[in-house]
């Protein structure tokens, strides 16, 4: 039997459209069987947090594995997202126990973690033909296809690498050490969203990258919603969403980074004493509030510089700095470069 390893970056219709068959077209319909969210913070604050979440994709791919094959892919400097579109198999990540995957299983893989997708043959479960999938040196804006085996695929996964953060260093998944596994259903329509993201990126049309990132953010938001009600221990990493006091303060920072926030004013928003606020905030974020605030301000500044509609002095003022020199010092400290040199 011939082993195939296929990389495609364009003209993906021949493998894309079969996955749209029988999928619901009404993406915005809320499933009647989905459990209601047990929100511990106000909907207003939650909306602020989810709206401000920035999701950037690195690459998107489709992984197809036939029975009796294993597809091995090295780790990347970004967390990976894997969603089973069709079939059954298992995903092996480092030294972790194999993860059984069925349709609509979603797995978040830690950064730099190599993984292997296996589909054992029922007649000989121990014999697997290994195929190595090599990621290209540059992953930006790529759509890839990895195929191990030939004939009817036994397992088809959507795979991608991404960043989800509130700033340059406030990344939700940066310290993830073990995979996150959640089981979704057809009513969640994640397969439709991911398939649309693949098609958008493959189209190479203007704005396709931004559209793909927006679609991928929808999936991350669904996962974050699940964390509010999940009994799994991984949900603890999103504990900010379940801490009403810190969420109120952080959502105020996110909504208006350039306001005159101080530890005392943020503690008042959280309705906590200054010491208690500092302790809880630092415990959740691993950094003090003013450090996180600076990160948010510099992200806003970078976006405004890229837009090119304001002067540096105006951007500095909107970022909460009284002088241009203090703004530039903060900008260099966060970005490592002067404004205008870091924008690609």
Short description:
The protein has 344 residues and is an alpha+beta fold. It is 35% helix and 20% strand. The longest helix has 22 residues.
Textual characterization of the structure:
This protein folds into two domains: 211 residues, Jelly Rolls; 93 residues, Homeodomain-like (Arc Repressor Mutant, subunit A), CATH 1.10.10. A hairpin with a 5-residue loop joins strand 4 and strand 5. It has ten helices and eleven strands. Helix 3 packs antiparallel against helix 4 and helix 8 crosses helix 10. It is an alpha+beta fold and 344 residues long. It is elongated, with a radius of gyration of 22 Å. A six-stranded mixed sheet has the order 9-1-10-3-6-11.
CATH topology of the largest domain: Jelly Rolls
Portion of residues in beta strands equals: 15-25%
Class from secondary-structure proportions: alpha+beta
Helix content: 25-40%
Distance between the termini: 46 Å
**Overall outline:** elongated
Overview features:
344 residues; alpha+beta; Jelly Rolls; Arc Repressor Mutant, subunit A; 2 domains; disordered N terminus
Which secondary structure elements does this structure contain, and how are they paired or packed?
Elements: H1 13-16, H2 43-52, E1 54-65, E2 69-73, E3 80-87, E4 89-93, E5 99-101, E6 105-109, E7 115-119, E8 129-133, E9 142-148, E10 155-165, E11 180-183, H3 190-203, H4 208-229, H5 244-255, H6 263-270, H7 274-285, H8 289-307, H9 312-318, H10 324-335
Parallel strand pairs: 1-9, 2-8
Antiparallel strand pairs: 1-10, 2-7, 3-6, 3-10, 4-5, 4-7, 6-11
Helix pairs in contact: 2-5, 3-4, 5-6, 6-7, 8-10
């Amino acid at each position: 039997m011939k082993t195939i390893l296929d990389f495609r970056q364009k003209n993906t219709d021949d493998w894309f459209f079969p996955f749209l068959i029988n999928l619901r077209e009404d993406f915005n319909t809320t499933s009647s069987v989905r459990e209601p969210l047990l929100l511990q913070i106000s909907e207003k604050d939650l909306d602020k947090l989810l709206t401000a979440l920035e999701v950037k994709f690195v690459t998107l791919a489709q992984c197809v594995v036939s029975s009796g094959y294993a597809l091995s892919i090295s780790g990347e400097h970004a967390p990976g997202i894997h969603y089973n579109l069709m079939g059954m198999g298992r995903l092996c990540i480092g030294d972790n126990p194999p993860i059984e995957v069925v349709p609509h299983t979603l797995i978040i893989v830690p950064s730099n973690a190599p993984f292997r997708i296996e589909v054992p043959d029922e007649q000989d479960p121990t014999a697997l033909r290994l195929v190595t999938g090599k990621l290209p040196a540059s992953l930006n804006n790529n759509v890839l296809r990895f195929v191990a085996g030939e004939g009817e695929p036994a397992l088809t996964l959507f795979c991608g690498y991404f960043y989800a953060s509130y700033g340059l260093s406030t990344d939700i998944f940066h310290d993830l050490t073990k995979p996150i596994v959640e089981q979704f259903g057809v009513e969640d329509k994640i397969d439709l969203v991911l398939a649309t993201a693949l098609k958008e990126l493959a189209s190479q049309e203007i704005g396709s990258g931004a559209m793909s990132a927006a679609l991928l953010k929808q999936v991350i938001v669904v996962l974050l919603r699940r964390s509010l009600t999940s009994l799994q221990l991984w949900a603890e990493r999103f504990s900010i969403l379940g801490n009403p006091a810190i969420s109120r303060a952080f959502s105020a920072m996110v909504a208006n980074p350039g306001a005159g926030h101080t530890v005392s004013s943020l503690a008042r928003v959280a309705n906590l004493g200054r010491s208690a606020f500092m302790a809880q905030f630092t415990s959740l974020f691993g950094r003090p509030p003013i450090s996180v605030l600076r990160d948010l301000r510099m992200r806003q500044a970078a976006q405004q510089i890229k837009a090119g509609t304001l002067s540096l002095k105006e951007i500095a003022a909107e970022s909460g700095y009284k002088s241009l020199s203090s703004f530039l010092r903060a900008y260099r400290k966060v970005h490592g470069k002067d404004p205008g040199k870091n924008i690609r």
